[in-house]
Hints:
5-stranded mixed β-sheet; Pdz3 Domain; SH3 type barrels
Amino acid sequence: MMALIVRRYFWLVNGTFILLVALLLARTANLFVEDAIAPPLPGTSASLAPVRVATEAARTPLDGARLGKLTGLTYGKKEPDVVEPASPEVATGPIRSSLRVKLLGTLVANDAQWSFASIQDLETQRARSLMVGDDLMGTRILTIERERIIVAANGREEFIDGEASAPAITAPTLTRPMPAASSGPESGIRAVSEHAYEIPETELQQALARLDVLSTQARVVPAIEDGKPAGFKLAAIKQGSLYTKIGLQNGDVLKRINGLSLDSPERMLEAFTKLREAKHIELDIGRSGGSVRKTYDVR
């Protein structure tokens, strides 16, 4: 009876075995597929290789020269600093005046109000003397310096010096050019007596035309007596200067020239102007509490 049952259902046992074998094979194949396509687990040697390769690739330096050739851009080079163009300097001082005048010379005193300048009009060839505050062809004198004067013109400052601002119109002359005044022992000034002198006209004219040089040979300051202007006092006279040649000394007070009192800057200017035509000069001097008169014949 048992053998009959086994024989009848043997195919079922055989089919079950075959089914189990097929399931086992399918499971094994599934494990191989999963192992092939699944990402590697952390900590395994297989997982370290891609990471190492990626790290090394990231550390590989970029070939800047090659990149520049391909793109036309500069790479890895420091760009030159951009330098802003310097703005042009703007002149802030006085500019040269366009007036047709030229500075002949100046006499600069410690007190600016006593300084004066000699100016030549290039149109008329006439000379005139000016002081601070005077008008000159529509301008006003602001400052008198040794080698130039500053004027106010059109709301700005301009300067006038010994150079002409435009070609001068030279007036015809029949006289010979004056030789330069000599400052050495060979000077033509001669003492006739203690207080009388002879002066060559050329030397006198040369001195009056170069008041800027004359002003450097001594210091001239206003002299006050009894609270009133009494003339001009000389100090720091240089040896060999015109002052020493005509007998003047430190501390002398120039009071009168040819009877004209030097008690104001205007009188001083007037006296200097008249000296250009003078043939005889009388100079009254205050010296050591007394008075001295010196005379000069211009020849």
